[in-house]
């Protein structure tokens, strides 16, 4: 019995240390912080679909979330983005880009920032200067 209690204490301490060292909350609903001046510089977006690619490079913008930046890119290049707002997550879910819909061939629109899979909604991910956002249509990364 003492061994089991000791085991749980050790596990709890390890989890606490990981959270403390990473300086991130254990369960996050947002990523990054809104820039103080309300803009970001030199950010880029790459969209990769089965049929086409888009690059929107080295942009200075006041659209500081991944969602806002995607909508700006869509407006700039005149392509469609279908979205649905999910109140529980306080974020948009991107359902389709230029007619390529989630679920097609069991693939979904997912985004990465600086090569890292984002595990928060696109409306809750705040960009920083020099970030590179990549949207890919691929099997989901959260299974």
Describe the protein's architecture and organization:
The strands form two sheets. This protein has a five-stranded mixed sheet, with helices on one face. A three-stranded antiparallel sheet has the order 3-4-5, with helices on one face. Strand 1 (40-48) and strand 2 form a beta hairpin. It has a single domain (29-138), classed as Ferric Hydroxamate Uptake Protein, Chain A, domain 1 (Beta Complex), CATH 2.170.130.30. With 143 residues, the protein is of the alpha+beta class. 23% of the residues lie in helices and 34% in strands. Residues 15-20 and 22-29 have low confidence and may be disordered. It contains two helices and eight strands; from the N terminus they run H-E-E-H-E-E-E-E-E-E.
